Amino acid sequence: MSVTGVLQVWVAALLVHLAASKVVLRPEGFLKLPTYVGTTTFNAGVANKAAYDSVTNLLYVVGHDNDVMQIINMKDSLTNPVHARSIRFDPLNQGFPNDVKVCRGGLPTLEFLAISFETKNNLEQAHVHLYQLLEQPGDALVRLKTVATVEGYDPNSIAWHKDCTELVVVSQGTMHVLNGELVDPKPSVDVLIPRLGLNVDRRTVPFSETAITSARVRQVMTKCDTGSYTQLISHVEDLEPNFVVVDDDNIAYVLMQSNNAIGRMDLQDPLTPMSYHNMGRKDWSQYKMDTSYEDGGINQNPHSMTSLYQPAHAVAFKFANKTWLATADTANIRRHNIRSGSTTLCNFDESVVGATWTRSNTFSSFMDANTAAQLKTNMSSNAITGRLPFCQLKTFQDGYNPLQLSYSYLTTYGGRGWSLIDASDMSRVYDSGDIMETYFASSAATDSDKAVYNSYYQAPQSAQSQYVDRTSINTGPNPTAIATGNINGTQVVVVANGNIGGLYTFSITLDGSGAPQVGFEGFIRRGSPGLTWANAYVRSDDAVGEPGIEDLLWIEDEGQHVVVAISKIAGVASFYEVQLQ
Ligand SMILES: *[C@@H]1O[C@H](CO)[C@@H](O)[C@H](O)[C@H]1NC(C)=O
Ligand SMILES: *[C@@H]1O[C@H](CO)[C@@H](O)[C@H](O)[C@H]1NC(C)=O
Ligand SMILES: *[C@@H]1O[C@H](CO)[C@@H](O)[C@H](O)[C@H]1NC(C)=O
């Protein structure tokens, strides 16, 4: 064999080896986080969001309801770290933490631990505190700047400019009651700018009614269905920004889950307005969905209906010299039943279950008559789509044809998967389809997996498997958080099951034409299906699992790759090592 021949064989073998390498998540440390008084209690509100400082190897976790911040020390081990300390916030002066983010901009004056707080009962506008990053877990928490007030009330998500010169804060503007009156705060996107000295400047990003409308962004509420609150709600007021992420080029992406849209703005260019992108609908005639818990268990079928993707959580990353956005897509249905004493202030529901939908709605002539008849038959059966929520808004966006006073297509909620978006034009290049649900019907699924299929946490005394199949009608696998990292050239995406916990792993490689090629690598879940959540929690192992994952972090340090899942319901930080095999 010639030298080139040998080389060719060797290169071919290497390629086969690369293609065959498998991404594996190995369960490692599992920390039950304490309340601020030091007790470990199931579902005590001690963990929602997290941020990691790669210089000090400290992981910060904030717990909203317990008003606490956990300091986890990862200096000695990334895979088996230790809980060092819990810091209690002051509910009156600071409020309750919504999000936490670390930034190290390269200059000592630009290093911050940012925490957004909402005030008790939303009595006042929200605040952001900029603290000094701790060097050691025991260091005092020192505020560096004046407390910055933001326009919004519920600053659920924050993200830094890469140089730490700006912090983007998004507030949803959820309706709430104040002194017996309904308050419907505007959504807001604030940009905070830490100045030399103590000051923090703020600019509030304007929303454009015409830009939103021309981008065909979905409007959910125009007014309450019933109730004493009769004010009209504008398209801008209806926006609900719930998550923000900033990419390496300082483009911010603002997710508006219930509106099924993403706003995109360049932080370097504050004069160019935000652009709005409709995330479109998923066609379930080419995928399989489980639509009922009364159909004898795992039973997935294609349906002639669409669902709104509804991105809830996202990561931005560079791969093959391009910026991508990976979004976790899951249902968010707007429903309100807001009262003050015996007065109903606002009742609203954008959806209605299939069995009810057919009673007051019909299909337009744009739909094939056979399909329409089948859909109606399916919706009249609780074993098919009778309990699935469908959109009942009379808007063009949601399929309503105002000329025929009927629907041209049927819309349900949530992508039940994740999407890969080309950030340059916000087009979707990949959709995980039905993999997160059909995995459970595959030979790879274990009996322990199947036992908790589409189950969810309902009460501490219920077994983890007790509500098996129950979420089939609303969220299915409920992807609530997503993280990504690159291991030796393979981009790995990890997606959380927000109901029963567990992580789905995917890999992205490039095909011959340079297009991303996504492969499903597997599912792993900690937990013990037969135990009740409460009994599992008191055991010394990881039997409680990670119900209600709200945040997912990818930590890379000295060649080690670790994924941390933050379980809101269990109050746990769960660590996995990611490896190529
Ligand atoms: C009606 O339900 C069956 C069973 O789930 C499904 O296979 C079929 O595709 C549905 N029909 C339509 C038109 O969606
Ligand atoms: C990456 O993309 C940029 C902009 O398209 C281009 O200028 C640059 O040469 C590319 N770099 C590589 C390594 O391909
Ligand atoms: C990446 O490749 C290097 C060199 O082949 C190897 O030593 C290392 O273990 C790999 N890292 C992972 C996480 O697989």
TrEMBL record:
<keyword id="KW-0732">Signal</keyword>
<feature type="domain" description="Choice-of-anchor I">
    <location>
        <begin position="236"/>
        <end position="509"/>
    </location>
</feature>
<dbReference type="InterPro" id="IPR052956">
    <property type="entry name" value="Mesenchyme-surface_protein"/>
</dbReference>
<protein>
    <recommendedName>
        <fullName>Choice-of-anchor I domain-containing protein</fullName>
    </recommendedName>
</protein>
<feature type="signal peptide">
    <location>
        <begin position="1"/>
        <end position="21"/>
    </location>
</feature>
<dbReference type="Pfam" id="PF22494">
    <property type="entry name" value="choice_anch_I"/>
</dbReference>
<dbReference type="InterPro" id="IPR055188">
    <property type="entry name" value="Choice_anch_I"/>
</dbReference>
